[in-house]
Each structure stands twice: as structure tokens, then as C-alpha cells.
Amino acid sequence: MTNTQKIILGCLGLIASCLLVAVGFLAMDAYHSTWTQPLGPALSLPTYTPGLASVPPTETPFQSQPVSIVFTATPTLIPLASTPLGGTGGVPTSLPTVPVEAPAFAACGGPPLMTLLVVGSDARSDSYNYGLGDVIRIVRADFVARRVTILEFPRDLWVEIPDIADNINGQDHEKLNQSYLYGNPGFGYTDDPAQGPGLMARTLDLNFGVRPDHYVAVNMRTFENIVNAVGGIDIDLPYTIDGRTADDTRRSLLFVEGPHHLNGQQALQLARIRIDGVFERTDAQNLVLCALRDKLTSPSVVGDIPELIASFQDNVQTDLSPEQISQLACLGTQMSPEDIVFAAFPSELFTQARVYDPVFKGRVFVWDVDFNILREYVRQFNAGTWPTAEPPGDASDEDQPISVCP
Length: 406
Prior knowledge:
This protein has ten helices and 17 strands. By secondary structure, the protein is of the alpha+beta class. The strands form six sheets. A seven-stranded mixed sheet has the order 13-8-3-4-5-14-17, sandwiched between helices. Helix 2 runs antiparallel to helix 3 (195-208).
């Protein structure tokens, strides 16, 4: 081989190497962009001062004493290693042990804290044009303490909803679950890019000071599909839940005490039973969520969660990225069941009432409650000081109706 040929081959090899490096960088960049790209438009909460909406005009506002819930976290202390100094005549030979707080590290590469608005829509179609936000949860994921707290908001709160007054003849109050309906494309009463979840987030912010970082909304058909996609869920019911009525005696509405393996349709059926009341339905929903959490954090499923959610991208409303979904899934594997706490406002704060609704031209059912008290609970929930860490059965439970995954 001549020197000229060697030079040509060397140049070609160099060019090929450069191309391989370039392709590698492009592939990594594309992968990184896809991995970190949100699956939907982000929330755009306004900058007004939260929590200044007027108390809803229900007939007899419930009055109660301000709540006072105290939680004191015990910091982790590590001793400072002794360092020889030498010397005599009373001079110390080592530094005293000084307690210092251990540095806080967020698990799974996540942020220290992530707050999510989670909505369950009553729509049965594959689209999100319509549907009420009938299941409303605020999820506080603490990646440092490795703890998740979930707060339930009753759907029948009579609240001020931004953006709707110009669309319904000046009416600016409706039920909380309707904020989700009015924000989605079927009504389109908001310019918020996050549509229904965006308007509900703004409503929660305005009335209660809730400011989620992200959102996830799932309709009934997609919920069924997700449960089926992971092979169903297993629930051990601590009591019988009977949703049968005189007009509907289907056997599928009866869930007897004991273990059950439920497919998507059965899990949805259980979560929707409210014959004993909305607070009892919340308890059943929490059991379903615990069972779904167990399945999603099992070794056989956890690695597939980002792909699973991505496969439902057109049928799930969320601004989470695959990376953030993976972080949340990872966090779930690092927590024990008692680290997932379900919280609800004390039921004794709520009184049944009716208020005239110009949209429906009649009086509709709402919960009469002092919003100032709810805002105080929300403030402490946001700060991570409520619900406290005492297990169920403590004397302190009177002020904090909580439950944990069994």
C-alpha cells in the first residue's frame, strides 16, 4: 500500500469516527429531549396572592374554631469526628462532639418536593372534551423524607372559578368539579394551555391556596385500560362494600369482605360506589389507589411505567415527562406502605346545604364549610406539617382523619 493510499484511508477513518461521534451525540440529545419532554402543556398559575376568594354564598356558613396542628420533625444528627490537637496542661486533645444536621438528599434524582393535581374524570369516552372532575386529589411527593401525602377535595364545594363569568352571564361560582369541565375543549371557558386541569388548578389556588407543580387527569375508560395493562389489582377488603339498590341489584355491585383480584372494570366499579356517602366512597377509592400503587411498584412493572404512560399519551392529560414519571415510580419502590398517607378534611366541618345555581335554574346540593378553616389545613399540608406522622389510633387523630396503605 502506497503512502498516498495510507493517507486516504486514514482520512476516511477519521471522517467515519467523527460521523460516529456526531451521530452518537445526536442520538443522546434526541433521547434526552424525549426523556425530559413534558407529555402535555404545563400549568400556568397566575401570580395573584392565593387564598383571597370570598367565602361561598351558602345559606349558613359553618363557623368553627381555627385549627392548630403541630408537627415537630426530629433532625438526623451525626457526630463530628474527633480531631487530635496535641498539647498538655489542660489543653483538650480533641474537638468536642458537635451535633450537625445531616444533609438532605432527594431520592431517585427527583426534586426535593413535587406537588401534583390528580383528577379522575367521569367521562367514558377516549377524549377529554367533556367530563366532570369527580375525583380530586392533591399529591405531595417528598423525595427527601421519602413520603407521599394525598389530600382529597370534595367535589361539591361551591367555589369561585376564574374565567367563566363572561361565558355564563356573569356567573362566577359553581361546584369545584365543574371547573374541570369548563376548562376542557367542549366548553373552552379558559385560555389556560392546560385546559381542564389548568382551570381546576387555578380554582384551587384562588379559593384554597393550592399551587400544584404538575397534573395528571384520567378518564374512566383510560383508568380501566391502565389497570388491565398491569394485569389487574389485588385488594383485601377490610369490610363489605355493597352498592346494590332496590332498582339495581346487580351482583357486580357487591364486594364482600376479603381478598379480590379486580380487572379495570371491577376496580372502577368499586371506586364509584357511594351508596353510603361521599366520604365512604373516598375510603374505597383510597383502597383502590393503594392496590394500584402496589402493582405499579412491583419489580415486573416499575420499569415499564414511562412507556406505559407514553402509550396512553393521547388518553391521559398530564404535563409530566417520562423522566418525572420514572422518578415518582422509583420513589414508590423506596417507601413502606405507611409512608403513603391519605388525608381528608374532618367530615364534621361539612354541613349539607343548597344554593341557587343560575346555570341549572334551581337549587343544587353543596357542602357548607368555613373556607378559612380549609385554607389553614391546606397551608399546613403544603408545609408538610399536616397530617402528622402519628399512626392511626393516636389521641391526635381527632383532628386529622388519615389512613395509610394496608
